[in-house]
Amino acid sequence: MALKNIIGIDHAVVMVRDLDKAAENYRQLGFTLSPRGTHSAHMGTGNYTIMFDPDYMELLGVLVATEHNAPARAFVDRHGEGIERIAFTAIDSAAGAEEIRARGLTPIGPTDFERPVTLPDGTISAAKFRTFMWPTAEAPGGVRIFACQHKTRETVWIPELMKHANAAKRIRQTLIATPEPAQDAAHLGRLIDREPRTEADGAVAVPSGGDRADFVYLTLEQLGRRYPGVPLAGLSARGGAALVLISGDLAATEKALGPAALRSGAAICVPPARANGTLLAFVAG
């Protein structure tokens, strides 16, 4: 039985050392970023979001060390910047947590938190969330998973934040480099009740649900063959990940990326050393 309260990838979390420097870097790559958010005190983190439809990216940094952000701090200390976790959209986080508990897993949460949001008209509102995480040890390919229930979607998916000079529209795939792609794909499949499928180059994909982006587990060698000519230096040492983004206009993408752009086959890429440990590959919609 598929999980009833989880409906596919919601957002990818890129852990960074210096939140404001990372934000400026992504602005230089043609992304529109939200104003900086500061999470509830027990979270100890701040963020910038890069909004697409129906998903998004999140640049996340630790502002104050807390028990809650200890795994994120450990990831950066050991492996460097990069995609540290992936969120699913939760219809109901409390019910979703009970679903995985019924499968013998102990969820972390559900946890409620919020951050203030400055709306385009200058007024202040709040983005409110309820999340739960799979156990920290359950991290296929070194990337943790959690689920996020958006209680105030209108303060997150703000139309003005969804238009990007680089023409990014949505996430098509999350690629996770690992020495054991089949093993890690099977692990994720068990955690979310989805069936892995092997792709033509031997990589293994796991649908995340609905029309949302797939997870794809592959070796570093396979990742390199998919994007020849793109240096992988700077990719996180564990769970090194890439995002394939759908572009509405590849010419606009290339122009906005400027000197960071590298053509590789049908894709226009930003190497991980230029994108805080994450390979970005833009492809036609």
TrEMBL record:
Give residue ranges for domain VOC.
Answer: 8-150
Offer one Pfam family short name for this entry.
Glyoxalase_3
**What name appears for this protein in its UniProt entry?**
Catechol 2,3-dioxygenase-like lactoylglutathione lyase family enzyme
The root-end lineage is:
Bacteria, Pseudomonadati, Pseudomonadota, Alphaproteobacteria, Hyphomicrobiales
